[in-house]
Design goal:
Rossmann fold; 6 helices; 168 residues; two-stranded antiparallel sheet
């Protein structure tokens, strides 16, 4: 069984599915917004806490399905363990920035791809993310998401990320 660490809100859907928030976390006041309606939360206390409870060992494979600015990757690298990190980012500019930021680090793979629509057989030992909350989905994409995830409201993007990650 993998360890899945997500920053999630208490939600009846998650309670029904058996997912609970381990502790109450507060988002910082400073946020950045881009054209994807994404807010990148950069709180060192939360990041450090989440990576700490991930309990990684050397040679583990780690998934970051919505990498943003790479705050979890940065924190994972501080552990000085040889971790194999695979990160996905939908925003092309952010994916390019991540590629440049981690250029030359062979154990980090950056992918500019929509994780929610990703088809892969790849498995991971650990998953860590701060998924987007309420991110805009086009009508076409919502239709596909409703088909792929009939148990979740397609506009609840953090729920979609949690369900998708748990299926890997």
């Amino acid at each position: 069984m993998i360890k899945l660490i997500y920053r999630i809100s208490r939600n009846p859907i998650f309670e029904k599915l058996g997912f609970f928030e381990p502790t109450k976390m507060v988002a910082p006041a400073k946020r950045k917004q881009d054209e994807f309606q994404a807010f990148y939360t950069n709180c060192k206390h939360i990041t450090s806490y989440m990576v700490g409870i991930l309990d990684c060992e050397s040679d583990m494979s780690i998934l970051e399905p919505c990498a943003g600015e790479g705050i979890f990757i940065d924190e994972l690298l501080k552990s000085e363990k040889m971790l194999h990190i695979t990160a996905y980012e939908l925003n092309g500019n952010s994916a390019d920035n991540l590629t440049q930021k981690y250029l030359g680090i062979k154990n980090i793979e950056i992918n500019q791809e929509d994780f929610l629509l990703l088809i892969t057989a790849k498995k991971f030992d650990r998953i860590i993310a701060n998924p987007p909350y309420g991110a805009y989905q086009s009508p076409e994409k919502r239709k596909q998401l409703k088909k792929d995830y009939p148990e979740i409201y397609a506009k609840e993007t953090y729920g979609l990320f949690l369900i998708r990650s748990s299926r890997i």
